[in-house]
Amino acid sequence: MQNVSRLEGESLQKLPGGQEKNSTGCRFAGMGNLIKVLTRDIDHNAAHFFLDFENAQPTESEKEIYNQVNVVLKDAEGILEDLQSYRGAGHEIREAIQHPSDEKLQEKAWGAVVPLVGKLKKFYEFSQRLEAALRGLLGALTSTPYSPTQHLEREQALAKQFAEILHFTLRFDELKMTNPAIQNDFSYYRRTLSRMRINNVPAEGENEVNNELANRMSLFYAEATPMLKTLSDATTKFVSENKNLPIENTTDCLSTMASVCRVMLETPEYRSRFTNEETVSFCLRVMVGVIILYDHVHPVGAFAKTSKIDMKGCIKVLKDQPPNSVEGLLNALRYTTKHLNDETTSKQIKSMLQ
Length: 354
Hints:
Layout: H1 31-38, H2 63-73, H3 76-84, H4 90-98, H5 103-141, H6 148-154, H7 156-177, H8 181-198, H9 211-222, H10 226-241, H11 247-266, H12 268-271, H13 278-297, H14 311-319, H15 323-335, H16 347-352
Main location: membrane
Protein name: CYFIP related Rac1 interactor B
GO biological process, one term: regulation of actin filament polymerization
C-alpha cells in the first residue's frame, strides 16, 4: 500500500453515536468536513478533510469484514510481483512450432509452459477471491440506515480496503495489457493438451487445470482488463441480488469515493500533504476504478448530465498528469466503460477522451 499522509494538527470531530478517535487523534474526519469537500463549489470555505488511506484502523463493527478482506489483500502484492516478472515461454514455443518432429523441443516447450499456466491459474483464482471481498465491502458500505457518505466517514478502514482493491485491479490490468505472452502461453497450452488427449498421451499438469477451468480462464484472459471486468460484473450482480437495497446506495458510494479522490488531487492544499508521490497514482487509479464501476451499475452511467460524478473534472485531473503516467487509465475510461458512446454523453467529454 502506498503511503498517504495525514493532516498534521487537523482538528477532527467525534462521530455521531459516540465513536472515539484513535490514539493519534486522526481516526475520523468530521462529517461536516466531508460534506464541505464534496460541495466545495458551493461552499468555498475549504475544509480540512483527508480520507486516511494509510492509517485507518477498523472499529469493532468493521473488524469482521475487515479481517475477511485483509486475508485476500495480503496476497495482492505477491500477485503483482509474479505478474510483473512473468516472461513467458515464447522462445520455447516458437522452437517447438518450427520443428514439430523434434520431440526434445516439444518436451522443452511443454515443460516451460506448464509452470506458467500454474501461475495463470493462481492469478485467475485470486480474481475470484477479490470478487468475493469486493461484494463483502459493498454490503458493508451500502447498508441501511447510513448514507454512503456516512459509511465512508464511519468506516474508513473498509473504505481504505475498497480503495486498495481498485488500486490493485488497475495495476494488474495495466501489467496484463502489456504482456501478450500470457494469452500466447495459454493458447499453446490448450492446443497441446488437446493434441495429447487425442493421441492418448498422459499430460503433466492436466489435473491442475481441467477443461472447465481452462474455459473460464480463457474467457478471463481474453478480456483487455480482466480484473476490472470481474469487479464490474461483481458490482452489477451485487445490485441485482440485493433488490431491497436502493441502487442509489451503491452508486452514491462509488460517486462519493470518486469525488473525494478528485478533490484531494486537484486541491493544492490537500495534495501538498502527500509525502509520497506514488500516492497520486494511487488516488488516480481509485478514482478511475470507481468511475468504471459506477458506469456499469448506474442505469444511465457516469457520463450523462445527471451523473453524480463530475466527469469533466475527473478527466481534467487525469490530463493534468504527465501523459505517460495516465495513458493506461485514460484507455480504461475509453474502452472499459459502458456508456461513453451513448447519445447522452456530451461532445465535450467525448472530445476530452479522444
